[in-house]
Amino acid sequence: MLLHRSFWVFSVVVILCLSCKKQINNAGSGVLGSQNILNGVTVDTFDLTTYTVQEDSIITDNAANIVLGSYTDPKLGSFDASFYTQLLLGGSTPNFGDASTIILDSFVLALEYTGYYGALTAQNFEVYEMDESIYLDSAYYIYSSKLVKPTNYVVPSMSNITPDPNNNVIVGTDTLSPQLRIHLDTNLARTFITEAVSGSSTFSSNEDFKSYFKGLYVKTNNGVLPSGDGAALYINLNDASSKVTMYFQQDGESKTYDLVMSSDGADFVHIDIDYAGYPVDQVLQDSTLGKVEFYAQAFTHRAAIKIPGLDSLPPSSIIHSANLELPVQFQSGTSYAPGTLTSVATRIKSSDDFYTPLSSIGQYIDYKKQVEVDLRYYVQSLLTGEIDNTEVVVSPLYFINSADRIVFNGQNTTNKNKPRLILTYTTY
User: Fold this and answer.
1) What does DSSP assign to residue 219?
2) If you write DSSP's letter for every residue of 353-390 in order, what string do you get?
């Protein structure tokens, strides 16, 4: 799928988004030591077949972090991420006393940043009340959606916001960590207060509250952005700073009440990607164009590499090293810089409908401008018959937590560096 990158909170558990069922067994790999290769053979003449595969059934619920916002990529088209989330009670049953004495100052949705991808231009935010429930034990996909009520609760004069994930926020006398703050209509807060003082059980438990108020749908409405504009914002909904806060005055005293988002509530991300007419669309329509360049993108596209000829290696070969080098197209600036790490997977058998993660993780080497993947155990497993020679797929490591994308050079690229597999082996 950066002008700035802050992924330190992301969990490597995201690799599991590959719909894996098992990992390739590395048992017996101890015999593959590289300390004695005097008679080894090194080859790098494999005719790699490169292309892009598309996925459309990626689960996005209850990820460690969520994505919000839109941008237009010159290679992969428009990217738009929104999310649905439940709200939970911020504490014990609120005691608002005499509601008629409450003066509401503001009602603010705060979302804690963990990073971003793209350019920090202004975006127009909208927030709606969900009209359908979501559940922790249900699966939601990039294309999943829920009915919402028609009212946009964002204060119109405050809907256009330029995100600033790099600087703290000053609220009154408090200095807060970087966060997106969206001002909502105080009439919604007034509705909550009225319900709380009515004597109903709405605020007695989270289950009662979720039944009364099903949650929020948060999105952007930016229209068609020029190429290179916009950004995907990375948000930690489980951080204590991510919440909706009522700020009010009562009897001359400033007070607050929070509704929170946490791992105890359900949430999921909805993704819209329009790549029609963009280079990635051409490669998807004609895989041979992947010989020029091919792509990986969070949520939807994986870069695929087939390596014909591995089957012709002697079955008795001991693989000492197998380094896959995937040059990345140079990008001016850092708006579209690839992530540091990539996931790597394959289909164990040609008939498999799912990818199984390999034990290797690809690494982007900035000074070389390429992703490098250790395929030693993959090739050895192929020779021993444990796996079929299908394809290796490379994806942004944070596949459901980011908007990372990578543009790889194919073997027919006009650029200097081309993909290759450098393999060293001996036979016995």
Assistant:
1) E
2) SS-EE-S--EEEETTTTEEEEE-HHHHHHHHTTSS-S-
Q: Which domains does the chain possess? A: 12-56+287-427 (2.60.120), 66-265 (no CATH)
d(CA 379, CA 218): 45
With contact defined as beta carbons under 8 Å apart, do 233 and 165 qualify? Answer: yes
Over the stretch 58-72, which tens digit does the pLDDT of each residue have?
A: 999 998 799 999 999
Instruction: Give the predicted TM-score (pTM) of the model.
Output: 0.86
* CA-wise closest residue to 191 among 216, 212, 219: 212
Are 5 and 114 contacting, i.e. CB atoms less than 8 angstroms apart? no
Strands 293-297 and 179-184, by their bridges, are unpaired
HSE-CB at 395 with a 13 A cutoff on CA atoms is 31
CA-to-CA separations, 319 to 27, 58, 306, 422, in angstroms, rounded: 14, 34, 18, 11
The angle formed by the CA atoms of residues 90, 91 and 93, to the nearest 5 degrees, is 115
User: What are 295-329's pLDDT values in tens digits?
Assistant: 999 999 999 999 998 888 888 899 999 999 999 98
